[in-house]
Amino acid sequence: MDVVVIANPRAGSGRGEALARSLQRRLPADVRVLRTATAGEGAALARAAVGEGARELVSIGGDGTHSEVVEGILSAGVPPGEVTLRPLHAGTGGDFRRLLDAFDPEDTPFEHWVSGNAPLIDAGLLEWTDEEGRPARRHFLNMVTFGLGGLVDRYVNRGSKRLGGRTSFFLATVRALAGWKPSPVRIVADGVDRGTWTVTNVIVGNGRHCGGGMCLAPEALLDDGLFEVLILPDVPLFRSARLAPRLYDGSIHRQEGVTAFRAREIEAIPLDEQRPAWLDVDGEDLGRIPCRLSVIPSAIRLRTPRRDVLRAGPEHDGREEAP
User: Fold this and answer.
1) Is there a single domain that holds both residue 157 and residue 58?
2) Which helix (H) or strand (E) covers residue 227, if one does?
3) Are residues 137 and 258 in the same domain?
4) Which are the contacts of 274, defined by CB distance < 8 A and separation ≥ 6?
5) Are 273 and 267 in contact (CB under 8 A)?
6) How high is the mean pLDDT in each 10-residue block of the chain (323 residues)?
């Protein structure tokens, strides 16, 4: 089996490099360890590795690194589900790792890295217009939000992140709320117009968590061919503060005024260019809407996800699917 490790040495203020060095000393000689040097290079390295025959990729970094590796896998031209991913966390937020079984690579023999449960899971495709006005597309693994979440990302990614994921994202959220101007947006789900909304945030989840532990799509499953979609309307600042604990405890979808449903495709159209809804794509700020998001069913194999985030897990009731 051709195994390639792709590491982001800058992830987590250097934790990515520390983990890569520690693991590299114990890896078999035929396992290649590639390091990213610039933002976005994880996709190019993964695409090249898959093109050269690698079918098992280990990603060391944060959610943005894992997302880049997924982009590389899915743009490499191989059939869906042919490549397996093992994400190893070394980033700031670490939200996707919350969907995986506990795994300590420094205390686990290498042969166990590339064995065990690896079911097919979905990914997402985002199509949007970048900040230079050019059409762009990007696959993603975990979650896309647009609205306040993208502005939060901008603050986090331009800060030091030395306070850790949860604190960095919480402080950035407070800062973003203080000057936030809600965005009027039209939402179309699976071809059906869901109406016009003045939103604080819209969450489109393949996974469940973002923002250093916020559980914004608590009913999302990785393999059901659907996004979990939540629309958080504009509310007064004092109510936003009261709702803050609900962002973490998995109950935000049950709060008054929050709309939740499932869909295979989402289109977001801005109605006021002076009040943009900023995009957050697996923890990276990539621009603003308009955008279209589509599920890619059974896109990759994932090493050891938790049972309860798959269709075979416990029942998840109360979710409306877009008509």
Assistant:
1) no
2) strand 227-233
3) yes
4) none
5) no
6) 92 91 91 94 98 96 95 96 95 88 86 87 95 90 87 66 62 69 93 93 95 90 97 69 80 89 97 89 88 97 95 51 48
